[in-house]
Design goal:
Distance between the termini: 13 Å
Number of strands: 14
Bound molecules: ribose-5-phosphate
Strand order of the largest sheet: 2-1-5-6-7-8
Low-confidence stretches: none
Largest sheet: 6 strands, parallel
Helix content: 25-40%
CATH class of the largest domain: Alpha Beta
Radius of gyration: 20 Å
Structural class: alpha/beta
CATH topology of the largest domain: Rossmann fold
């Protein structure tokens, strides 16, 4: 097996290659003066099982992934596995309003053209993978998150909504602590109440888990509610720290006690590595 790191995921790719104890090649990627992508793999052939690791967000990284797939095919790869740590467009997973595209499905269709297997990490909706015709697997970051927070005094794991309740259960069970989700109840046309569905937060060190932080709005609201419900401390661990605009500064300036994310996207708080979990999926 040979691991190829695209420019959006080089550190994670190196980590995965080191877990797998296999060869690592870094793609040579630059921009043409007009902004278009130029990429190259400095090898005569790639007659092996090839794993390309590259985020498909923002758009220019998607283009690089498509070009790297083409290189692997041309250099006679025995098989091509795409590891997409952060899958762009995952949230537009259905047509919400007539006239819109099914963006996540479109991405699967183009990315899957030359791939034999696709591995994602905490994809927004796992069902999206059904649009690929090849083998797929969505790696869960829960194990890496739980390992990171073991022995760190967490009493309660909470998801910001019922949709992510499974993630809180997974992390909570691994840590051997209570888990719950926040419930949103509409009180009137203008009033919404958000509170823990069952758990008593008083005096507890709470860890919020979510698949991603984009604007940070969800986490800021959840932190506020948990503090009002008596939590002693509130930290957050998300898989993908997208942090649009100044989200990271907003979160740091809030009363949150800790902000952590996985290294699917690299930034100053991406302290939790999913390299081991991805390597495990690649060995399967
Ligand atoms: C929602 O379904 C997701 O799981 C996240 O909670 C959401 O995308 C976070 O977005 P933001 O940080 O903009 O509130």
């Amino acid at each position: 097996m040979i691991v190829i790191g695209g420019s959006a995921s080089t550190n994670l790719a190196k980590g995965i290659a080191s877990e797998l104890e296999c060869e690592y090649i870094e793609a040579v990627t630059v921009r043409f003066p007009d902004g278009e992508c130029y990429t190259r793999i400095d090898r005569e052939t790639l007659e092996d099982d090839i794993v390309i690791i590259q985020n498909t967000y923002p758009d220019w990284n998607l283009v690089e992934m498509l070009l790297l797939e083409d290189v692997a095919k041309r250099l006679k790869a025995k098989s091509i596995t795409l590891v997409i740590p952060y899958f762009g467009y995952a949230r537009q997973d259905r047509v919400f309003k007539n006239g819109e595209p099914e963006s996540a499905k479109v991405m699967c269709e183009i990315l899957g053209l030359k791939a034999d297997r696709v591995i994602t990490v905490d994809l927004h909706k796992e069902d999206t993978l059904q649009a690929f015709k090849c083998k797929t697997k969505d790696v869960k970051a829960a194990e890496a998150i739980a390992d990171y927070f073991r022995e760190k005094g967490i009493d309660l794991v909470m998801s910001p909504d019922i949709g992510a309740a499974g993630r809180a259960k997974d992390v909570g069970t691994r840590l051997g602590v209570e888990y719950d989700h926040l419930n949103k109840t509409r009180l009137s046309g203008t009033e919404v109440q958000i509170k823990p569905a069952n758990a008593d937060c008083r005096g507890k060190n709470v860890l919020i888990v979510d698949d991603m932080i984009a604007t940070g709005g969800t986490i800021i609201a959840a932190n506020q509610q948990l503090k009002e419900a008596g939590a002693k401390s509130v930290s957050v661990a998300c898989t993908h720290g997208v942090f649009v605009n100044n989200a990271i500064q907003r979160l740091m300036g809030s009363s949150l006690d800790g902000i952590f994310c996985c290294n699917t996207l690299e930034n100053e708080v991406s302290k939790i590595s999913v390299a081991k979990s991805i390597a495990k999926a690649l060995r399967e």
